[in-house]
Design goal:
This protein is α/β, with parallel strands linked by helices. It contains five helices and eight strands. The longest helix is centred in the last third of the chain and has 18 residues. It comes from Fregetta grallaria (White-bellied storm-petrel).
């Protein structure tokens, strides 16, 4: 019985969904179903399609249905840390979307819908921790894009159409197999507005992630001859990796 329950995942009822609606910092209605053990998209939430934000992160979802297009008011969609192998073409109909996080899934370049380039108001896009071998040049159509995460994929290059987006300020392409470090630096140098993204704090990291960041910080300190002050709070600016221990309050992830 327990095994069958685990395979089916938690059943989300309309009552549970209604009780999971929160008011976001800017007064919008946010449906928060993160960390609920969900394995299939709950059809009942289609009755709550007028929400402004939808958080389905840190579940076990393998598919997002085309009915996602019912959420036409959606401005903020978080699907990170699931098991998604593709996205529906219908995602391109969410014209009000400015934040889309699909980090830490199983997305491949082939299964990345071309309709992503229709999200004309998108400002933050996180594609990190997937299986992308290349980035579609069509993403260059996202002229409002300000931040993009491409870290921990299988990229060997970043298209000029993406690097030269007019409003791009932050780009993270760490830990990709670029041909060599020199060429990787060239990618960074060509983006004059580049900054490093970070979305979680030290206290929110699991032991392995914390050690990885500490090692990387120590290496950077040696390269720059900077000795970290023990009284100064440690930070890890190269981290953009939401995981199972990522902080519950994600207000600072949002575009203000």
């Amino acid at each position: 019985k327990g095994k069958a329950k685990g395979q089916k995942g938690k059943k989300i009822t309309l009552k549970i969904a209604k009780n999971s609606i929160r008011i976001s910092f800017d007064g919008g209605r946010r449906l928060d179903l993160s960390k609920m053990g969900i394995t299939t998209f709950p059809k009942c939430i289609l009755k709550l399609a007028d929400v402004d934000e939808l958080d389905l992160s840190r579940n076990m979802l393998k598919k997002i249905p085309s009915s996602i297009q019912n959420f036409q008011k959606l401005r903020w969609l978080d699907l990170h840390s699931n098991q998604l192998e593709d996205l529906p073409e219908a995602i391109g109909t969410l014209q009000n979307l400015f934040y889309l996080n699909i980090c830490n899934n199983k997305l491949t370049t082939k299964n990345l819908p071309e309709e992503l380039n229709l999200l004309k108001n998108l400002r933050i896009l996180n594609l990190g921790l997937n299986c992308l071998e290349s980035i579609p040049t069509s993403l260059g159509a996202l002229k409002e894009l300000k931040e993009i995460g491409l870290f921990d994929n299988a990229l060997t290059t970043i298209p000029n159409s993406v690097k030269k987006l007019p409003k791009l300020k932050k780009l993270n392409a760490e830990r990709n197999p670029f041909p060599d470090s020199t060429k990787q630096e060239e990618h960074a140098d060509s983006i004059k507005r580049i900054e490093t993204l970070y979305l979680v704090q030290e206290k929110d990291l699991c032991c392995s992630c914390l050690k990885m960041c500490q090692d990387k910080r120590d290496k950077l300190n040696k390269l720059t001859n900077i000795t970290p002050s023990p009284s100064k709070k440690q930070s890890f600016p190269l981290l953009l990796t939401p995981n199972s221990s990522a902080k519950d309050n994600q207000e600072e992830w949002r575009l203000r």
